[in-house]
Amino acid sequence: MSSATTSRTRFHVHYRTIDLVTITTLAVAFGVIFWGWGKLYEPLSGLAVFSYPPSSGLLAGPWLIAGVVGGLIVRKPGAAFATEFLAAAVSTFIAGGTQWGFSVFASGFWQGLGAEVIFLLIFYRRFGVVVAAAAGALAATFESVYEWNSYWTDWDMGYKLAYLGFFAVSGAVIAGVGGFYLVKALAKAGVLDAFPAGREQVTEV
Amino acid sequence: MSLGGARFEGFTWRPLGRRDPVVAGLDLTIEAGERVLLMGPSGAGKSTLLHGLAGALGTTIAGELSGTAQVEGRLGLLLQNPADAIVAERMGRDVAFGPENAGMSRDEIWSRVDEALASVGLTYGRDHFCAALSGGEQQRLALAGVLAMRPDVLLLDEPTSMLDGDTSASVRDAILSAAEGRTLLIVEHRIEPWLDHVDRVVVLSAEGAIVSDGTVRAFLDGPAPAGVWMPGMPTPAPLDVPADLVRPDAEALSIAATEVSVELVTRTLRGTQRTQALTDLTAAISPGRTTAFTGPSGAGKSTALAVLGGLLKPGGGMVTPELRRWRSRRLAGAVGWVPQNPEHGFLTSTVGDEVRHTARKLGREVDVDRVLEVFGLGRFATSNPYRLSGGEQRRLALAAALAHRPGVVLLDEPTVGQDPSTWAAVVGWIAAARSAGATVALSTHDADLPLDVEHRMRDGVLQ
Amino acid sequence: MRSVVLRANPLVQLSVGLFSLLGSFWIRSLPVALIALGAYVVAGLLLLPGWRYPLVCLGFTAIAAVTIVYSTWRLGGHDVEEAVTAGLRIVVLAGPGSVMAGYVDPSRLADHLAQTLHLPARLIAAFAGALQKFTGFGLAWQQLERVRRVRGFGPSRNPLANGGYAANMSFALLVQALRGASATSIAMDARGFATAHDRTWAEPAPWTRLDRWALVVAALLGCVPIIARVAGA
């Protein structure tokens, strides 16, 4: 969230009302989706953990999609980070919360930062499927390293790397490629007309 | 131009995705203190004019703008769906939004909030939850939020079109008393109740040009414009729908509810809210008849329909047959249900697929082209459903839900806010399905809908 | 005393989770884990207004901890003590925060984020507004579920097919959410939001004496594992 301020002074980026409302609305919608996925995730990840623990990383991709989608739609510095972080925050505020407590804020922070870094590295100029996949993968990488230090502290290094690999693949495919096509579908549904992502999908009638 | 005036000069707007402008070179001047009713068929660009004055064109709404649209003084805007305007959890804070934006001091903010809430007649107090308000109360809350800014010009974009008769009358009264001494620009579909309260009527054509502009008297004496509801107009003739498109491909069931009660659970961020939606409802629907559940908003009409169709689990009592226990596919074969918001009804990405979708799942044949033709959607077969206009979406949602010819046809508020041609299409399909032997049931507060059996409801109880 | 956590301001409420998260990084042995957990249990017994809700939260956290115990045991060299320590550490890391999140009032939190932490005012105001859509999203979700069921595309018993169902539902919900977003921003701009550069706030974001003491207690609880470790436990 704070990156939105700094970016405004450094890059002279102006956030229109529709930008802010879209970021926050996406955050609430994805917060709900995250919360729902959290309830579904537990039994599935249990299965994964009891078969081959690092493979639970494959199930973690959906958590990263908010940042990728926010970045692809709004295309301004801070958008990816804010969308992901706020979505994570929303998922903890829903009654019944999440089992991970404050750690969700930390995850939202690292996941949002991972996606944001990719968009920053290409100066917010390209928003293709490769960039989206990279954003998903880096978000997964950042989050994995955080989880090594918080959840999986005592795993042997090889397993930690395997977890990171699974997570990065899941992030690239589900959050990255999935997020890219989600944005495309939203644009075709006509709800992104206020954004370049929407205008690129329009055919005149 | 004096304080409170509004003016369009050479106003031209081409929305994104349209080759031609919807409004081209429009000139219109509204004097301070005037009350103007703006009308025209769907797609005539009425809302566009309000959006232009509000500064939303070219920013929030994408497209190409030229010419000027400006207001002298502060403007206030009221939208169709009050839920879109709510920005806070509690009433006081919601009304405070505008004064906060203007950077006012805390004392000034709260004195304006109290004044605005009092002027729209909301007496629950600052700390009342917005979510606990009815639709009409929410619209009055939105009006209070607008008034707290002390606007010189009030822009109203179909503020009562989602409300039932009594509720819209109360919202209209609140608007009119608040409008005292202010300039008023109203866009509405159903214009009759407003005519006594305006000075001037401006009629736009489907092409966005002004076809007439004058006093209410002159307007009523002039030729009736096409595509709008005129005062005293007979209800349009229902569209003629061929019987083979609607003849049930499954048994038309008789469904009976016996002493059914339903408690609706709404999830809020902080927990759940429970409201008693139905109490001891005993009612039946049967083949070859149109059964209507009528009554004001919140009477439990939609809930009654959902419980009969097996879409909602009753808390007590019995529904026979117990459709609630049927698997999705089996239920689809027997029942078609049109949701109140057409956009909730779409599952695919093209209009044609939407009509085909359920039939294909069930292995039934559907003549998609003819269905689309009947509803005037033929040229949109490959368009995205979400891209259609409101009236077109309403017709498509109906086709999507019913094209597979279920024996039971359920419709939730099928005609609310529709123009005459969509009204005729919806009513035509309902009548044809009924004549072909289907069990038809609907919830409505439209007194003009033809029906065989009426169940009047209030507060979840059959009257 | 049991109303303390309800009366504390939302930043203080969240700080409990932050400190427990930070403190948990010092948990490397079973005694330290038990001491830290014990401190939180005692604090919870003394200060929480009820036991039902915290227990549910703790239950969820415990399920998560079990998977960690197992995976640590399996991938960390079959050391039972190490595995149990890792599990308890997760309970300390996540438990207090997930309980406290349930007491946070998001509207009050927004006031504090803007006025105490000075985060960008328009973003926070927009966020507070967006939170009000939650109930509407829930109602839309119900309608979307009904439509899918009555059109023959309800959820099935096959979990893989349900992935497609969930994706289709999520897409429809997002369309509804974003459709409302443009109407909301038009309404907000008409109330001066576009030019709200010196926005004020109708409610204050106070720090009472209770808040300051509660913050100290939260920090001390977070320091328990550090102190225990330094003391040689």
| Rg for CA atoms of chain A | 17 Å
Please outline the major beta sheet of chain C: none
> How many beta-strand elements of chain C?
0
List the total number of helices of chain C: 10
The beta-strand count of chain A equals: 0
The residue fraction in helices of chain A comes out at: over 70%
Helix content of chain C: over 70%
Order of helix and strand elements from N to C terminus of chain A: HHHHHHHH
The low-confidence parts of chain A are 1-10
Structural class of chain A: mainly alpha
N→C terminal distance of chain C: 31 Å
List the secondary-structure elements of chain C in sequence, H or E.
HHHHHHHHHH
- Please state the overall shape of chain C, judged from the principal axes of the Cα atoms: flat
By DSSP (H or I, 4+ residues per run), the number of helices of chain A equals 8
Structural class label of chain C: mainly alpha
Tell me the major beta sheet of chain A. none
What is the alpha-carbon Rg of chain C in Å? 22 Å
User: What is the oligomer described by this structure?
Assistant: heterotrimer
Q: What percent of residues of chain A are in strands?
A: under 5%
Report how far apart the termini of chain A are: 40 Å
Q: What is the strand content of chain C?
A: under 5%
Short description:
Chain B starts with 5 loop residues before the first strand and ends with a strand. With 463 residues, chain B is α/β, with parallel strands linked by helices. Chain B has helices at residues 46-54, 91-95, 97-101, 106-119, 135-147, 165-178, 216-221, 243-246, 301-308, 328-334, 351-362, 368-374, 390-402, 420-435, and strands spanning 6-15, 23-30, 35-39, 63-71, 75-78, 153-157, 183-187, 200-204, 210-214, 255-268, 271-285, 290-294, 316-320, 335-338, 408-412, 439-444, 453-458, 461-462.
Describe the structure.
The complex is a heterotrimer of chains A (205), B (463) and C (233). Chain A has helices at residues 2-11, 17-51, 65-74, 79-93, 103-121, 129-150, 157-188, 196-199. Chain A is built from 8 helices and no strands. With 463 residues, chain B is an alpha/beta fold. Chain B has helices spanning 46-54, 91-95, 97-101, 106-119, 135-147, 165-178, 216-221, 243-246, 301-308, 328-334, 351-362, 368-374, 390-402, 420-435, and strands at residues 6-15, 23-30, 35-39, 63-71, 75-78, 153-157, 183-187, 200-204, 210-214, 255-268, 271-285, 290-294, 316-320, 335-338, 408-412, 439-444, 453-458, 461-462. A 6-stranded mixed beta sheet of chain B has the order 5-6-7-3-8-9, with helices on both faces. In chain B, helix 11 (351-362) packs parallel to helix 13. Chain B is globular and about 65 Å long. Chain B starts with 5 loop residues before the first strand and ends with a strand. With 233 residues, chain C is mostly helical. The longest helix of chain C has 32 residues, at 159-190. Chain C is flat, with a radius of gyration of 22 Å. The model of chain C has no long low-confidence stretch (mean pLDDT 88). Chains in contact: A-B, A-C, B-C. Chains B and C meet through strand 5, helix 3, helix 4, helix 5 and strand 10 of B and helix 7, helix 8 and helix 9 of C.
